[in-house]
Amino acid sequence: MVLEMKVPSPGESITEVEIATWLVEDGDYVEKDQPIAEVDSDKATLELPAEESGIITLKAEEGDAVEVGAVVCHIDMSAAKPEGDSAPKEAPKAEEKKEETPKATPAKETYATGTASPAAKKILAEKGISASEVKGTGKDGRVTKEDAVKAVPSMGTPGMGARGVERKKLSMLRRKVAERLVSVKNETAMLTTFNEVNMQPIFDLRKQYKEDFKAKHGVGLGFMSFFTLACVRALQMYPAVNSMIDGKEMVSFNFQDISIAVSGPKGLMVPVIRNAENLTFRGVESEVKRLAIRAREGQITVDEMTGGTFTITNGGVFGSMLSTPIINPPQSAILGMHNIVNRPMAVDGQVVIQPIMYVALSYDHRIIDGKESVGFLVAVKEALENPVELLMGGNPLKALEM
Question: What is the pTM of this model?
Answer without folding.
Answer: 0.69
